[in-house]
UniProtKB/TrEMBL annotation:
EC number(s) on file: 2.4.1.68
Superkingdom per UniProt: Eukaryota
Full protein name: Alpha-(1,6)-fucosyltransferase
Cellular localization per UniProt: Golgi apparatus, Golgi stack membrane
Matching InterPro entries: Fut8, Fut8_N_cat, Fut8_SH3, GT23_dom, SH3-like_dom_sf, SH3_domain
Reaction(s) catalysed (UniProt annotation): N(4)-{beta-D-GlcNAc-(1->2)-alpha-D-Man-(1->3)-[beta-D-GlcNAc-(1->2)-alpha-D-Man-(1->6)]-beta-D-Man-(1->4)-beta-D-GlcNAc-(1->4)-beta-D-GlcNAc}-L-asparaginyl-[protein] + GDP-beta-L-fucose = an N(4)-{beta-D-GlcNAc-(1->2)-alpha-D-Man-(1->3)-[beta-D-GlcNAc-(1->2)-alpha-D-Man-(1->6)]-beta-D-Man-(1->4)-beta-D-GlcNAc-(1->4)-[alpha-L-Fuc-(1->6)]-beta-D-GlcNAc}-L-asparaginyl-[protein] + GDP + H(+)
Species for this entry: Chironomus riparius
Recorded family membership: Belongs to the glycosyltransferase 23 family.
Annotated Pfam families: FUT8_N_cat
Annotated motif SH3-binding, positions: 293-299
BP GO annotations: protein N-linked glycosylation
Pathway named in the protein's UniProt entry: Protein modification; protein glycosylation
Amino acid sequence: MSFSRQILIFICIWGLLIYFFLIKLNPTSRSKETDEIERLNSALLYLEKSKAIDNELRRLLDEYVNDVASPEQKSELLKRISSKFQDVTSSSTGLSSNGVPSYEYEQLRRRVTTNVGELWNYMGTELSKIEKSMRSEFEMQQSIKQMKNFMELAREHIRSLTTDLNTMKGADGYEAYRHKESKALSDLVQKRLHYLQNPSDCSTARKLVCKINKGCGFGCQLHHIVYCFIMAYATERTLILKSKGWRYHKGGWEEIYLPVSETCLDSDKGSQGTWPQQDVQVMSVPIIDSLNPRPSYLPLAIPADLAPRLTKLHGDPIAWWIGQLLKYILKPQPETLEMLENGKNKLGFKKPIVGVHVRRTDKVGTEASFHSLEEYMKGVDDYYDQLEMVEHVDKRRVYIASDDPKVIDEARRNYPQYEVIGDPEIAKVAAVSTRYTDSSLNGIMLDIDLLSKCDYLVCTFSSQVCRVAYEIMQTLYPDASSKFKSLDDIYYYGGQNAHNVISVMDHQPKSAEQIQIKTGDLIGIAGNHWNGFSKGKNARTNQNGLFPSFKVNNKVEVADFPTYSHVE
């Protein structure tokens, strides 16, 4: 293919993308989706204009009623007109005048933000293909330089759009609501869990026994405990952990973390049984993969009574729900807390900072593919490039957690522009041969703690350590669902029920790899390829294949959990 033809094809692709993006924001379109996007883009403008219009209304009314009304009548009339005007403005923009956004506004804001990212995934992948093709067929360095300049300008366009969206969120007047609602929901769940775990009479309380010695790593065992806690919450049973002889610490869980109950730790008395025997006082459960029958309240389901508030507040409700369970479980003993604080201070951990988790030893080639450090650092670069559009960064910092100490050395050698924070000694004891030691336990706890406290995560979601850090991160912000970049999997929970998405746009396949979807189709998602396309199975057609990621919305699964209505 000639060079000029390649450039022509490239320009056509770019033009189509820009045309599509503009059509999405075109106020003359009358489609439902376009009306919503128009409403989002106009929302802040309406709010800015509302004060001026309100003032003008007040001036005109003042002139009108000045000679015909008493001061008291005039004041009351102005209040009524102003209130009515604000109600009309709120209705027309989808916003609220009482500091609480509408559900539609929050969903649309997050969808536009996500789709800007998906647009860049697609553009970046296609531009890279063209650049590689040019390099392989031509030795035209000037043309390659021009293409790189073009790619950098495209990146700036996307970063600018993302910055505008972030600014819009910060200026929409709802940050106070988001922080207040986040705290209120978290407090409610923590109170429910405390009530469940501290029955008034332990001898008669219904209990669920969980043995934590599952044959896997630390992150996997944490998720096993969370699964047990979900089962306990759903069946209104006090969770009893059996941890003596724990492979990570023979003394058991309670020597590292506070007990999950202050008043009820005994499960030896009362009738005994296993799932699904609900008529026994003490029930044991197998690992999630062996659970049969499988109840609807397993992940990725969230409690139905929390769903209306949670889906408005958060972009990844299941991660928030898991994070709340981890928040209750992971309360360190004083010695553990001291170890974490000393480790943080010793490493010089400070913000801004991006957390990078590189899993190498036992995962690569089995559960996950190899990813070079360069791939991780590309995500770190992108984060800081975005951040520097709105604030000065004194030093680019990166916290690297790995089970391979050479990764930290490689980062310090190849990325001198970064302050690389990490401990090769922790990486050494994270290797398989030394994993189940106190030193390794301290190291993995410190890694998870610091990764969760980073401003952004770059990792592979095939790693349970990374997913645990992401889940805990959700407890530190009103919504941290976009504070990550995964190089492989989308977020998932091991042993979960089906993960489905719902199509919001039609799609006709453009290649043999793609599938047809129609608006409203239910699609079982297998993963996001991070190139603008995801893979899944259409339940309507039974077709497996690729589809554009921006044409679907995540389906939030809800299940009927106990409501604990007496706990406020």
